[in-house]
Amino acid sequence: MKKNLQEIFSNHPRQRDALIPILQDIQGIYGYLPAETMKAAARHCRIDPVEVYGVATFYAQFKFRPIGLNTVMVCLGTACHVMGGARILEEVQSQLGVRPGESTEDGVFTLETVACIGACALAPAMVVNKDTHGRMKAEKVTEILNAARNNSN
Ligand code: FES
Question: Half-sphere exposure of 44 toward its Cβ, with a 13 Å CA cutoff?
Answer without folding.
Answer: 25
